[in-house]
């Protein structure tokens, strides 16, 4: 049986934990494909070109490179590993045919894989594991496999085993072809006779590989039971079938910096990765008359203006064709920072377009003008916030447009004005995520924006009902000022808000002055004696006096303000703090740790539930004071291997004890 190879354009996502060597691997793969010269510093600057990526020596957004490998078209998309930047992986996963999960040969870092595997599982993307940095230490592939298996839902199957000399890995044996290779620095590996010392190990690993594949194929199982050795073609076809169906995870290893194991990896991709036909089944994209393009990235940098990057899912496109009712111009192939104009694109290709109005990342645009927003890569709700303010007030007018361009590039960022505190808040996945967004803003538009921990929206309310009569009187030549009011000020229940009414009889306060009294009361409520706005009180104007000549709206406004200030001073106030409703979503093995996290933040658990849309996950409902939540995401991530998340919203105000009040007022 021969394996049929497809040559339609395929997309491989390169993802995995922080600093595992993904961008280095991308460059090594491109150099293997002949489209980069590894030792030419100019061409090596393909990945991580943005000023932010350079400043932090890490990937801050996806690196995309389309190229040919052995006559077949490929696009490789390397995503950042930082947990706060996982929206890039989530977004690219929706269009990828396959993912290469890159990790380090360190069992201690196996948990860092969880977040990546979760994204791939949710998007149902077939993947293989590439254990990088095999040059570094004495590592055991078998031991590694056991620890990595613990975090993978699918069976990991070792495709090759290492050959060692003096404890150092010097090459590998391919378990299907049974050929041994010696790794060479910067050159293709050379063939080697299979070392005798590893023959037993090789046989054992080969049998394990066959058995793992036979779990999904009755014919293969039968052969193994009858002690018939399956043909290599049989094994290759099973590997490719099981990988396409996302049943197994083949495991390879090597070294991106030394260029070792790269050809094996690329050949595995070439022979075993599914193509756009399989991916369309996953995306439930049926055949259509015209082209369908899924946009997975939006870039607003540089002179070109907005660029939408998408994958053609079906059909073919010519530059200038209509997409979403607009002329799709400037169609280009992407190779890192370089864009090369394209006249046509076919199903499977990844392409950049010039300005497509109204199209955002995640949209499917079609030739017949339909826009489908299927939101497949919906971001996790932002668990972190900073209040932002331009350093130079004169820049305020420039902020909204320039910030919006950054937000359009990253759906896991958002911004909103908080009416309770009067602050403009930037929301995202963590401190670093927001700092990078602000750096991007500065690098692109020159705007310096300062960020601070958002103010907690504390409030005050009265302790008891008080009545206060105040006469505001001023005689200073000409017209004087006169207004007298008697106010009854009472506390209301939490959440009932502020109401004002009057019980004036006989016109002792003329009708036209009553709204001025209310305005005066509202003026004074902006800041109570503890320094916070007042809420939940009822004010009744019960009596007053006016003067035919000297009374005015201003005089009654001042009287209203003074009366309420005096009433508040006599009653005294209590401090109220905002309490949020929080829904924490975590894999259920971590649920027991949540109690401590919540109680450590003065929170209360209201209930546990299984997550309706995620098998094996729980949702813990709780209430936590807003003041305790600023850095909660860090603790939650470290308690849940980086995958826990939460959604929160304001629920109610709650009275604080005198002790707690003192602490807050003192700061
Ligand atoms: N020893 C060794 N170091 C490597 C290898 N591959 C990458 N590195 C080093 O690991 C560090 C991180 O490499 P990157 O390629 O930037 O890692 P990354 O996974 O893209 O990082 P992020 O995208 O920021 O998550 C760099 O110092 C690389 O030189 C390898 O095969 N062996
Ligand atoms: Mg990187």
Rounded Rg: 32 Å
CATH structural architecture of the largest domain: 3-Layer(aba) Sandwich
For the largest beta-sheet, the strand count, sense and barrel status come to: 7 strands, mixed
Termini separation (Å)?
76 Å
Strand content: 25-35%
Shape: elongated
Can you describe what's shown?
The chain is of the alpha+beta class. It folds into five domains: 10-280, P-loop containing nucleotide triphosphate hydrolases (Rossmann fold), CATH 3.40.50; 286-373, Beta Barrel (Elongation Factor Tu (Ef-tu), domain 3); 384-452, 2-Layer Sandwich (Alpha-Beta Plaits); 460-571, 2-Layer Sandwich (Ribosomal Protein S5, domain 2), CATH 3.30.230.10; 578-666, Alpha-Beta Plaits, CATH 3.30.70.240. 28% of the residues lie in helices and 31% in strands. It has 18 helices and 35 strands. A hairpin with a 6-residue loop joins strand 28 (466-474) and strand 29. Helix 12 (399-409) packs across helix 13 (431-445) and helix 14 packs across helix 15. It is elongated. The model is unreliable at 1-5 (pLDDT under 50). Bound molecules: guanosine-5'-triphosphate and magnesium ion. Guanosine-5'-triphosphate binds next to helix 1. The site of magnesium ion (MG) has 5 residues, from helix 1.
């Amino acid at each position: 049986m021969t394996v049929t190879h497809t040559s339609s354009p395929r997309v491989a996502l390169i993802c995995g934990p922080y600093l595992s060597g993904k961008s280095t691997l991308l460059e090594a793969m491109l150099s293997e494909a002949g489209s980069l010269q590894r030792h030419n510093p100019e061409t090596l600057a393909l990945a991580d070109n943005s000023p932010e990526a350079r400043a932090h020596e890490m990937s801050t957004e996806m690196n995309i490179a389309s190229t040919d490998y052995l006559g077949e078209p490929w696009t490789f998309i390397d995503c950042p590993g930082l947990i706060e930047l996982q929206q890039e992986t989530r977004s690219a996963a929706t269009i990828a045919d396959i993912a290469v999960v890159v990790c380090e040969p360190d069992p201690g870092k196996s948990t860092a894989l969880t977040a990546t595997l979760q994204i791939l599982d949710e998007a149902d993307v077939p993947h293989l594991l590439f254990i990088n940095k095999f040059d570094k230490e004495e590592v055991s592939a078998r031991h590694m496999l056991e620890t990595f298996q613990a975090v993978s839902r699918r069976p990991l199957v070792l495709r090759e085993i290492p050959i060692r000399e003096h404890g150092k890995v010097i090459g590998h044996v391919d378990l299907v072809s049974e050929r041994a290779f010696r790794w060479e620095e910067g050159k293709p590996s050379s063939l080697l006779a299979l070392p005798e010392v590893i023959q037993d190990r090789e046989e054992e690993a080969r049998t394990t590989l066959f058995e793992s594949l036979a779990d999904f194929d009755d014919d293969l199982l039968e052969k193994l039971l009858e002690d018939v050795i399956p043909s290599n073609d049989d094994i290759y076809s099973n590997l490719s079938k099981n990988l396409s169906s996302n049943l197994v995870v083949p495991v390879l290893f090597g070294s991106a910096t030394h260029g070792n194991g790269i050809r094996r990896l690329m050949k595995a991709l070439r022979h075993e990765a599914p193509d756009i036909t399989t991916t369309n089944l996953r995306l439930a994209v049926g055949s259509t008359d015209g082209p369908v393009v899924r946009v997975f990235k939006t870039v607003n940098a540089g002179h070109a203006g907005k660029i939408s990057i998408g994958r053609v899912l079906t059909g073919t496109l010519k530059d200038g064709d209509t997409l979403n009712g607009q002329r799709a111009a400037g169609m280009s192939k992407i190779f890192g920072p370089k864009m090369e104009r394209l006249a046509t694109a076919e199903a499977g290709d990844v392409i950049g377009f010039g300005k497509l109005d109204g199209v955002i990342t995640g949209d499917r645009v079609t030739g017949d003008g339909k826009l489908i927003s299927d939101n497949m890569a919906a971001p996790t709700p932002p668990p972190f916030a900073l209040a932002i303010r331009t350093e130079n007030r004169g820049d305020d007018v420039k902020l909204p447009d320039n910030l919006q361009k950054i937000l359009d590039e990253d759906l896991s960022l958002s911004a909103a004005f908080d009416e309770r505190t009067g602050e403009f808040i930037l929301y995202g996945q963590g401190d670093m995520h927001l700092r990078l967004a602000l750096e991007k803003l500065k690098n692109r538009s020159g705007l310096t924006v300062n960020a601070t921990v958002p103010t907690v929206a504390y409030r005050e309310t009265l302790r008891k009902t008080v009545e206060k009569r105040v006469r505001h009187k001023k005689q200073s030549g000409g017209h004087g000022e006169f207004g007298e009011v008697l106010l009854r000020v009472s506390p209301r229940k939490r959440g009932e808000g502020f109401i004002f009414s009057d019980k004036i009889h006989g016109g002792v306060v003329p009708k036209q002055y009553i709204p001025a009294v209310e305005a005066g009361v509202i003026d004074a409520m902006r800041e109570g004696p503890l320094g916070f706005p007042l809420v939940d009180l009822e004010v009744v104007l019960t009596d007053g006096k006016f003067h035919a000549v000297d009374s005015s709206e201003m005089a009654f406004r001042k009287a209203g303000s003074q009366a309420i200030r005096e009433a508040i001073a006599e009653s005294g106030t209590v401090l109220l703090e905002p309490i949020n409703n929080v829904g924490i979503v975590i894999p259920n093995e971590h649920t027991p740790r949540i109690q401590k996290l919540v109680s450590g933040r003065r929170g209360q658990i209201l209930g546990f539930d299984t997550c309706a849309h995620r098998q094996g996950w729980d949702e813990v409902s709780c209430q936590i004071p807003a003041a305790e939540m600023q850095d909660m995401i860090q603790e939650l991530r470290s308690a849940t291997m980086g995958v826990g998340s939460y959604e929160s919203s304001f629920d109610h105000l709650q009275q604080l004890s005198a002790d707690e009040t003192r602490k807050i007022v003192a700061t």
